[in-house]
Amino acid sequence: MAKITFENLAHSYLADPTSPEDYALKELNHDWVDGEAYALLGSSGCGKSTLLNIISGLLSPSQGRILFNDVDVTEAPTAERNIAQVFQFPVVYDTMTVRDNLAFLLRNRGADPTYVAQRVNQVAKMIGIEEELNRKARGLTADVKQKISLGRGMVREDVNALLFDEPLTVIDPHLKWELRTQLKALHHEFGHTMIYVTHDQTEALTFADKVVVMYDGRVVQMGTPEELFERPQHTFVGYFIGSPGMNVLGATVNDSSAMVAGHEIALGRSYGAPTGKVELGIRPEFVRISTEGPGLPARIRRVEDVGRHKIVRLEVGAEKLDAIVGEGVSVPADGAVVSFDPAAINIYSNDWRVAPKGEVAA
Amino acid sequence: MNKTVNQKAWFLILPVLILVGFSAVIPLMTVVNYSIQDTFGNNVFFPAGLDWFRDTLQSDRMWSSLRRQLTFSAIILAIEIPLGIFIALNMPKGGFWASFCLVMMSLPLLIPWNVVGTIWQIFGRVDIGLLGHTLARMGIDYNYTQDALDAWFTLVLMDVWHWTSLVALLAYAGLRSIPDAYYQAAKIDQASRWKVFRYIELPKMQGVLMIAILLRFMDSFMIYTEPFVVTGGGPGSATNFLSIDLVNVALGQMDLGPAAAYSIMYYLVILLISYVFYTVMINLDKRDGMK
User: Fold this and answer.
1) Which one, A184, A238, A301, B182, has least CB within 10 Å?
2) Distance, CA of A31 to CA of A67 (rounded, Å)
3) A269: which DSSP letter?
4) Which H or E run contains A263?
5) Which of A95, A145, A149, A170 should we substitute to test contact with B (largest number of B Cβ atoms within 10 Å)?
């Protein structure tokens, strides 16, 4: 188990990168705490797999260093890093039995046979595949194969980190939930540092202590699920997390009030006078709809009933706005007025969040 | 869906039946016909029962040809399969050189059999052939027309030159289909190069290798043109393979009855072996399919 440190880390797949656009992974400085579960979340091509491959040593970064427990491993080959990786598609050694699969690494290291036998049984118990130990790995179901890949990593007691590269892609939905729960339980019990790459926000939010949201090769925010929900640091985080995502409306902000579509909205906090492209972000959960009273006049386009609540699609001026209302709330047929919970409003300048005066930096 | 029963539909496949009849069944039946009849000329035939089959099975000449044939197939399989895998493992993974290698390796496969035979017939000649003359100048006593061992050496070398590419190309295709994740996992598991081959590459190549073995076995078991052009079965009968022996019986001696019995048994042996291979391959697929 290890603390993972990134120092000025960046990677480009081009031989001679010049502009920031050439970098698949833009400069990164972070400390990842030992024993925490991290989820790397982002859409395809955002650089999350690049980062994972740099951690596992399959890729050598163009610049910067990566340290495990303050030891520089930037140039260390994968074999020496003591990491375990579970891939998108199950990777098992088909012709071997499950037992031999688990023992493979220890035998490659020339470990003592009695230790190997004992350790394999121990790991099989941890991941719950004792029943299958003597079966050939070929012909097992995808979820058991993924458990074997995980187990192959966990047999080493000096494992630095467990890496997961979208491991649930090929698993049936009902087993997904079970496997994820099991992963969390393993994490609680054994405290491995876990890094989990996914583009599924539910997976990331339920699995991780810290979610690292990546966008266009950059880590845009790293925080707990609550932080991502309440204080998205970037408009991308706002609409990538949440279903539907955060509403982002063009606005002009002057100190503690904002003008949206010609109407004034009180912000409750002071933002000074942000410049550039200024936007107001509000999650659909905090949008209230009424027939009259103060607020923004809006036009209802569509109502989607998803069972637990209703999603109301509205239009404010030329911009689209989503709201979530309870099942029991009746939605006016036309001429609705929307208002926002001031505490849930975030202000963005050029897509990055502007901290209100007096807020303690997270 | 309800299907109406209409036996007239059989007429729709009649053209195919007629074509297959003319192309396969009728010629084959002629052979069957010859194998159970005898004649003293004048196109008058009388039944001979299974005499020709009995004669052929008791013929030492046939058995020694079969032994030679099996030895030849075993030798070329033992060389071409490992060599083909070795070449495939060392080929470039992509880019210009991969295409270049693929094209260069396909060249021998495109040369007609009798041309291959002629090339090696000349190549191995002591007086004008590059190989034969060079060996002779180096003081090595090499003459494929007089020495049985040299003749075998030439034929095996020729077959390896002609067909190893096929095995290599198949193995290469099998290797390219292995996802990178397997190699990455092996790195993480600190597997040696040998173990990567033994536990990842070989199992993943199993299917294509079965096809390669089947094709090479059948082809080498039926080989005719190349040894006929190079050695003509000689020296003596040292390279008299089954097909050469069969042609000698049929066309050399005009013994149509024994030759027909001979070819039917030859055909059945190949059919049997192909069936065994086919069954094994299907079972492999089934085992893979049960995921």
Assistant:
1) A301
2) 9
3) S
4) strand A263-266
5) A95
Tell me the one-letter amino acid at A264.
E
Nearest to B203 among A95, A105, A108 (CB): A95
Residue range A9-56, pLDDT digits in tens: 888 888 777 777 778 888 888 888 888 888 888 887 788 888 888 888
Check: complex ipTM more than 0.90? no
């941890």: which residue's tokens?
Answer: A126
**Section A291-317 average pLDDT:** 84
Contact B189 A95 (CB under 8 A): no
Terminal alpha carbon distance of chain B:
31
Please report residues of B whose CB lies closer than 8 A to that of A95: 199, 203
Mean confidence (pLDDT) of chain A: 84
Bridge-based pairing of strands A210-215 and A37-41 is parallel
Q: How close B205 comes to chain A (CA, Å)?
A: 12
User: Which ranges of B111-147 would DSSP assign to H, the alpha helix?
Assistant: 113-123, 130-137
User: Which of B189, B283, B287 to probe the A interface (max A CBs under 10 A)?
Assistant: B189
> How many C-beta atoms surround the C-beta of residue A312 within 10 A?
25
Integer Cα distance of A41 and A61 in angstroms: 20
Cβ–Cβ < 8 Å for A233, A221 = yes
Give me the pLDDT at residue B290, please. Answer: 46
How many A-B residue pairs are in contact by the CB < 8 A criterion?
Answer: 58
**What DSSP element (H or E) covers A297?**
strand A296-305
Do A150 and A125 meet the contact criterion of CB atoms below 8 Å apart? no
- Residue A1: predicted pLDDT: 60
Q: Domains plus CATH for chain A?
A: 4-230 (3.40.50.300), 246-354 (2.40.50.140)
Tell which B residues from 192 to 211 touch A, by Cβ distance under 8 Å: 192, 195, 199-200, 203
Q: Is B291 on the interface with A (CB under 8 A)?
A: yes
Rg of chain B, C-alpha, whole Å: 24
Q: Residues A61-97: pLDDT tens digits?
A: 888 888 888 888 888 888 788 888 888 888 888 888 8
Distance CA A281, CA A283 (A): 7
Q: Is the pLDDT of residue A342 over 70?
A: yes
Please give the C-alpha separations between residue A119 and each of A122, B14, B244, in angstroms, as whole numbers: 5, 68, 62
Per-10-residue mean pLDDT of chain B, 291 residues long, equals 80 91 87 84 79 84 89 94 93 88 90 90 88 87 85 92 93 90 86 88 88 90 88 83 87 84 89 86 66 39
Whose tokens are 């705490």? That residue is A33
SS3 A187: helix
* Tokens of residue A217, six digits: 């090769």
Q: Across the interface, do A104 and B203 touch by the CB < 8 Å criterion?
A: no
> Which domains does chain B carry?
66-241 (1.10.3720.10)
Q: Are B187 and A152 an interchain contact pair (Cβ–Cβ within 8 Å)?
A: no
* Contact check, Cβ <8 Å, B189/A104: yes
Is the per-residue pLDDT at A360 higher than 70? no
